[in-house]
Design brief:
The complex is a heterodimer of chains A (342) and B (336).
Chain A: H1 2-24, H2 29-43, H3 45-74, H4 83-89, H5 98-114, H6 119-124, H7 126-131, H8 137-171, H9 177-207, H10 211-240, H11 248-262, H12 266-278, H13 291-296, H14 304-335
Helix pairs in contact in A: 2-8, 3-4, 3-5, 3-8, 5-8, 5-9, 5-10, 8-9, 9-10, 9-12, 9-14, 10-11, 12-14
Chain B: E1 10-19, E2 22-32, E3 37-41, H1 48-55, E4 63-68, E5 71-72, H2 77-83, E6 84-87, H3 99-109, H4 114-127, H5 143-155, E7 161-165, H6 173-190, E8 193-198, H7 201-207, E9 210-215, E10 218-223, H8 225-233, E11 238-245, H9 249-257, E12 261-266, H10 268-277, E13 283-289, H11 294-303, E14 307-314, H12 318-335
Parallel strand pairs in B: 3-8, 3-9, 6-7, 7-8
Antiparallel strand pairs in B: 1-2, 1-4, 4-5, 9-10, 11-13, 11-14, 12-13
Helix pairs in contact in B: 3-4, 4-5, 8-12
The chains are: A mainly alpha (342), B alpha/beta (336).
């Protein structure tokens, strides 16, 4: 026992000297800031609360999925090919499934992590102190973003893997490599999506002097996209619907427009992308298919590559929206004057 | 002056900063030399902080040039920030971290390796007398402790120049004295060049080698305290305070008739006290004259059979200089 402890101690000691050698080279200020931000997030109460909410959601969704699978297993179900994936998408009707939970909570994580990142430092007077150190001004904002994104990635992936693990334990049915790949890509998209909301709240925290205002702005936008946006698109759709339903070109053109409009919303993009990846049976996202297409199509799920191809534009659009928002906050931050506490 | 022979460490030339129509800094030219403590004095909103921000490259000047240690602050702010320690007014720290952690963070932002950063942080905390509080969270610090921690934070990167913006704001008198003594000591022992801004004139007077008076974006006077008073007054005047018992009208007239005396007045507070306690309480007379008359004044009091209890030749403080300037300034404005 003591020999084993000694060995362990030596291993740790050996590592420590290696780390000491590493420490001789100073870390660039950017990574110092990222480290600090990451540490601050993890230690904060906010993070504990978030984690609690998310864990509850995760347990709830597993529960509902498992009961649904058990109920479904008694019936003769044709499609057991993607049983593992259905962990994420089915529900017994009492609680929403994992995907719905995720699309609902993801923006909240992003907003909660970012909403006070710049303005609180400004109000506390730490911004001007940090800026008077030899660091580039943009490093500050970039560090905030990178640290937030890293944290989000950790949360999202641990959440996804937790659901997978618990699912494995409860249903005892292992995932195929393809299923695993689909889940991992979905989690990646989720990270990007949460990153988008993080950026949005970063933008608000640059723009608004009060943390409360920026939090409220973030939440307002979240509710807007989640609840009102589709209503508004519907309203516009009804108002501009072509009068003659026999004019196929006009109807299709109109429908394309409406789809474009609804896909401006990041929530819509995320939902379509994630559900396409987790439901291999989704063959197209186009509401119009001709009878021949529907009739002649082989009734088989899409392969992983094809599903990814189908949502590729969504992924690109999500990343593009994130980049645009980040650019906006970057520009407005660079133009701001840094004075102490003002 | 011998120090002026060297190249200036901070060199401002025709510096202008405009916010829309408002001119915050108006053609400012100023040189600060190695090893000196320079006090930038001015009322709130005079443009002191804006000037300092331009020195650090945190704000771009509208026109003109700023050089710190021979480096252009506008073009190479990074190099300047490596050499300059800046303590903003009302310095902020990460309140849920300890004083030590805050210092380490600053040190690491300056690319100081962690082991050395720890060593320096201990040293600096000892230097500013915060060793016992090093493990405390900054949120629990008093104003004076924060300010001292701010000084440690500025010094940990071993700067050539330190810029302190209103370092004494909101600290109690004893704290101010300690802080100023610390700054002076640092400047003398380590050869640091110090620029400190303030609107608190007495304090600046205690430690500054030179002072610049800064009003509405313009440097209206600079130099050591004596030359500043000469610069502002035009003709030099002298004031002497005399504590006398009893103070009679005859005595005042006699003093007034002395060659060179321009005014004799009683101090306000004493006038009230005299009513209560009768003629035996000392009264302070303030005598203003064009030339040095201290000895003659004493003589005159004794000749009038009064007892002279105190005699204080009044040296000009910055308060008076400042006050005088503003009196003049307003008068001039009213005429214009």
């Amino acid at each position: 026992m003591s020999a084993w402890a000694d060995k362990l101690r030596m291993a740790i000691g050996g590592k420590r000297t290696a780390a000491a050698v590493e420490r001789q080279r100073p870390t660039p200020p950017f990574w110092v800031m990222v480290q600090k931000e990451f540490g601050d997030h993890i230690r904060s109460w906010r993070f504990v609360i978030l984690l609690a909410i998310v864990t509850l959601a995760c347990i709830g969704s597993i529960y509902t999925a498992v009961t649904a699978i058990k109920a479904g297993a008694t019936q003769a179900d044709a499609d057991v090919r993607f049983l593992f994936l259905s962990m994420f998408t089915i529900s017994d009707g009492n609680l929403p499934n994992f995907l719905t939970f995720l699309s609902f909570l993801a923006p909240l994580i992003g907003i909660a992590i970012g909403f006070d990142s710049v303005n609180s430092e400004r109000n506390k007077g730490t911004l001007s102190r940090v800026m008077s150190q030899p660091v580039h001004r943009d490093d500050f904002l970039n560090a905030k973003f990178v640290a937030g994104l890293l944290l989000i990635a950790v949360v999202v992936f641990s959440l996804g893997l937790l659901v997978m693990g618990m699912g494995l334990y409860t249903i005892g049915y292992p995932p195929t490599p393809e299923e695993f790949g689909r889940v991992v890509v979905t989690l990646l998209i989720t990270t990007v999506y949460v990153g988008l909301w993080l950026n949005l709240s970063l933008l608000f925290s640059v723009k608004f002097k009060q943390a409360a205002t920026s939090a409220l702005a973030g939440i307002a936008l979240w509710i807007f996209f989640l609840v009102f946006y589709s209503m508004i698109v519907n309203l516009i759709g009804n108002a501009t619907a072509p009068g003659n339903l026999n004019d196929a070109a006009a109807v299709i053109g109109h429908s394309n427009w409406m789809q474009l409009l609804s896909r401006l919303s990041p929530a819509q993009l995320f939902q379509e992308a994630a559900s396409t990846l987790l439901l291999p049976d989704v063959r197209t996202l186009n509401p119009f298919i001709t009878q021949e297409q529907a009739y002649l199509a082989i009734s088989a799920p899409l392969s992983f590559g094809q599903s990814t191809l189908l949502v590729w534009p969504h992924i690109v659009a999500l990343i593009a929206e994130t980049a645009v928002i980040f650019a906006a906050s970057y520009v407005s931050f660079m133009r701001q004057e840094i004075r102490s506490r003002s | 002056m011998s120090i002026q022979a060297a190249e200036p460490v901070i060199e401002l030339k025709n510096l202008v900063k405009k916010y829309g129509d408002f001119t915050a800094v108006d053609f400012l030219t100023l040189g600060i030399y190695p090893g000196e403590i320079f006090g930038l004095l001015g009322p709130n909103g005079a443009g002191k902080t804006t000037t300092i921000l331009m020195m650090l490259g945190l704000t771009e000047p509208t026109s003109g040039s700023v050089k710190v240690c021979g480096i252009d602050s506008t073009r190479n702010p990074m190099q300047v920030k490596r050499k300059v320690g800046y303590m903003p007014d009302d310095v902020g720290f990460y309140e849920d971290r300890t004083a030590f952690d805050n210092l380490i963070y600053t040190a690491r932002l300056n690319r100081i390796p962690e082991a050395e950063a720890r060593q320096r942080a201990h040293l600096m905390l000892e230097r500013v007398g915060l060793t016992e509080a090093s493990g405390k969270k900054v949120g629990a610090f008093s104003r004076g402790m924060r300010q001292r921690l701010g000084l440690a934070d500025v010094l940990i990167k071993k700067p050539d120049v330190i810029i302190l913006d209103e370092p004494t704001l909101g600290i109690d008198p004893e704290g101010v004295r300690e802080l100023l003594a610390l700054i002076r000591d640092l400047s003398r022992t380590e050869g640091l060049t110090v620029l400190l801004s303030s609107h608190h004139l007495h304090q600046v007077q205690q430690i500054c080698d030179r002072v610049g008076l800064f009003v509405r974006g313009k440097l209206i006077a600079s130099g050591d305290i004596e030359s500043l008073s000469r610069q502002l007054d035009g003709a030099p005047t002298h004031q002497v305070e005399l504590d006398v018992v009893p103070a009679s009208e005859a005595l005042e007239t006699a003093l007034r008739e002395l060659e060179g005396v321009t005014a004799v007045s009683r101090k306000e507070t004493d006038r009230l006290a005299a009513i209560d306690a009768g003629a035996q309480t000392p009264v302070t007379l303030v005598v203003t004259s064009e030339t040095e008359l201290t000895a003659e004044l004493a003589n005159a009091v004794i000749r009038q059979d009064a007892r002279l209890l105190g005699l204080r030749p009044h040296r000009y403080g910055l308060d008076d200089i400042y006050h005088r300037y503003f009196e003049g300034g307003e008068a001039r404005e009213r005429v214009g």
